[in-house]
Amino acid sequence: MKFQGRSRTKRTGGRRRPIRKKRKHELGRQATETRVGDAKLKVVETMGGNTKVRAIQQDTANVATADGVVSATIEGVTSNDANPNYVRRNIVTRGAIIETSEGTARVTSRPGQDGQVNAVLLDDE
Q1: Is residue 78 part of a domain?
Q2: Looking at residue 113, which CATH number applies to its domain?
Q3: 93 lies in which domain range?
Q4: I want to staple 86 with a disulfide (CB 3.0 to 4.6 A). Which of 49, 76, 80, 96 is the partner?
Q5: Structural domain count of the chain
Q6: How far apart are CA 117 and CA 112, in angstroms?
Q7: The pLDDT of residue 125
Q8: Long-range CB contacts for residues 44-53, cutoff 8 Å, separation at least 24
Q9: For residue range 39-56, what is the model confidence (pLDDT) as tens digits?
Q10: 3 state SS of 106
Q11: Measured between alpha carbons, how far is 113 from 116 in angstroms, rounded to an integer?
């Protein structure tokens, strides 16, 4: 679990003494690692009675091209700077380079937060 409270160290490197203990509402959730496969979504309740749609698996991506936005099928993950192991496991995160039916694209959305994969087509350099 992630702790989303104040850091224990100052910007200068000095130690900041805790004012109080951790609170339950300051804990985050386990990261949703969106994989390539048949579309599978999960609705999660968040604070304030709101909801988030999380993509557990996704097989299509909305790819922005020069002509417009096209829905393309995801064939696999080419590279991922977040974690090299994500390439082997076909996990899609923001910034991942994916191979689609339209060509190579970079993911711009956060599938674990948004529930969909948006990407921008990369120019073949």
Answers
A1: yes
A2: 3.10.290.70
A3: 32-121
A4: 80
A5: 1
A6: 9
A7: 45
A8: 52/113, 52/115, 53/114, 53/115, 53/116
A9: 999 999 988 899 999 999
A10: strand
A11: 8
